[in-house]
Amino acid sequence: MATINVYEQYFEASGSFSGVERKAAAVMLISDSDAGRIKYELAVNFFPHRSEDDFAISYDAYFSKVLYEADGRRSRKREAGLMEILREEADTLAGDNGGTIFWDKPLIEPRRG
After folding, report:
1. Residue spans per domain, the chain
2. What is the CA radius of gyration of the chain?
3. CA 60 → CA 22, 49, 75, 104, distances in Å?
């Protein structure tokens, strides 16, 4: 199985999970391929971000949703389409779990794989 972070970026955010205030979120589009099947999953992970260099990820505030799964392999066209809906889907996922992502306040440049 090959797992690749197609996209990853950290943003300022807000939310409280397990009694801990979270001030940032990692937003990821992850692809998994195995035996001729491809799956794209959106993940949002809220973490405390207590200082400018604190990027310690918390696994008690990790939320994910499968955006696409079918026979096939990675496709740039499909990934571009998923990137177009990523923010809307991430906002829904975050909101459903009591969090907010501040898209206009990135903490790092986007990483693409």
Report:
1. 2-107
2. 14
3. 11, 14, 31, 25
